[in-house]
Fold 50S ribosomal protein L17.
Amino acid sequence: MYSNRKKFKIQGKTASHRKALVRSQVIELIRNGRIKTTPKKAKVLKKEFDKLVTTFKKDTRKSNQTVMSFFAENKRAFDRLGQVVADKLSDRNSGYTRVIKTLPRKGDNAEQSFVMLVNTEVKEKKTKLQKMLDDREKG
């Protein structure tokens, strides 16, 4: 399959669906610090997030309105973006995220990759087995 004449990286979705998909992934990235997705969605997410942070860092009324309109009036995500930018991304001019390829998905063998914020430690989630073993050690 050749890649000429493709307007969008994410194919097979309407414009509103693509916009909603990117918006929800950006919000999850801000909330969790990393997100697991397909490589094509990861490229789009990285591009949109970097644009959003650069616009947010201008710190003018117009730039804040632009960023707020991206979040569709989700004030909590807007505030969290402000915290992330102030804490971890204030010293950088670009390259706020990184994409790391991982093993394919188990169910359908689709390619997967992590999109992570730079300068961020992500809390590792414990599995049920690890939680159970920790509880046994305590009690």
Q: What stands out?
A: The helical segments are 15-32, 39-58, 61-70, 75-89, 128-138. The domain at 15-138 is CATH 3.90.1030.10 (50s Ribosomal Protein L17; Chain: A,).
